[in-house]
Design a protein that fits this description.
It is built from five helices and no strands. It is mainly α. Helix content is 77%, strand content 0%.
Length: 82
């Protein structure tokens, strides 16, 4: 069964709210969820980059290695083996 993004968010918020209703209420005051989500995506990408060796980082930094292209290739490989 596929979970929609709204259902996934609702489940997380339910758990959060059950643990601390005041904290859930405070989330109503947050206005810039888009920025926060972008920052989290960047933080997660940074965690991947931190595990790379210097040579790979230098290739990415110089533009000679296209991370998005490699991600697409790996995703395709995974789909083929699934």
């Amino acid at each position: 069964m596929m979970t929609t993004t709204t259902e996934a968010l609702s489940e997380v918020l339910r758990g959060y709210g059950r643990a601390d209703e005041t904290a859930l209420a405070s989330l109503l005051e947050v206005g810039d969820w888009e920025r926060i989500a972008r920052q989290e995506l960047e933080r997660r990408a940074t965690r991947i980059v931190q595990s790379l060796d210097d040579g790979t980082l230098e290739a990415i930094a110089s533009g000679s290695l296209d991370v998005r292209a490699v991600c697409r290739q790996v995703a395709d490989e995974i789909k083929q083996t699934a």
